[in-house]
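Slides due. Your pick:
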Amino acid sequence: MSVPTFYGKELRWKREAAGLSLEAFLESSFYGKSYLSDIEHGQRRMPLDLARHADRVLGTDGFFERHCEDVRKARKGSHAEYFADVLELEKQAVEIEEWDPMLIPGPLQLEPYIRAVILSAYPSESEEVLAAKVADRRARAWLFEDTASPESWVVLHESVLWQPFLPPDEMAEQLAHLVEVMRKRRAFPQIVPRNMGPHPFMMGMSRFLTFRDAPPLMYTEGMYHGQLIDDPGLVKQYSRAYGRLRAAALDPVTSLRLIEQAAEDYRNGKHPGRLE
């Protein structure tokens, strides 16, 4: 049993022993039923303010607050603290929809690309930590490559193709890898042309996670922070905007052909042509 699962079960046992429903337990807190249910099932870590709330309501004398640190330390690998919940949730998702205006999504990145991304944000990172981050990111490749992975839509801005993030041969390999994975038909790419004009999500990376028996969530991320959004109304509003973005993007067949052509151009020492 994982550490988050252990403390989630403990919270549920103490709450039910106190005769409290989810709603009654959450009174005077800012959390919703689905969020608490995920914690009790070990699918999310308990935040410190909710742990303190639990200690007050259940009279547990600081038990949950003291053990928040155990849960925090139990997160796996070198991923950022704010990404820990997403790591658990993506294992349960049945569909993932992603938008990235500047980068190839993490699980699709090869080592040279990963190193370039990390060093752009953390230029003083040690080789040991850098190697750990590369390994952890590559370990998430299953999200797009395994036969049992969630079905995914990946919408990328055109600039992802022609921005020379790496030397031409490495960019060619990276884009060819993207094509190879997409041809497995577990993930479907769409390219947003640079001449499209104003469009939804003219902002940072966003990801929608859909579950079989739980409400959908949205995750958005900046350079040094990330946020899970679980408010149903807000998630629905963002989801409608994502639908409009997909409708304005190129279809998957055309998009895959463009990625493949960009890889070939890099391989031939050319800068890939921008879409007209």
Notes: The chain has a mean pLDDT of 88. The chain is about 50% helix and 15% strand.
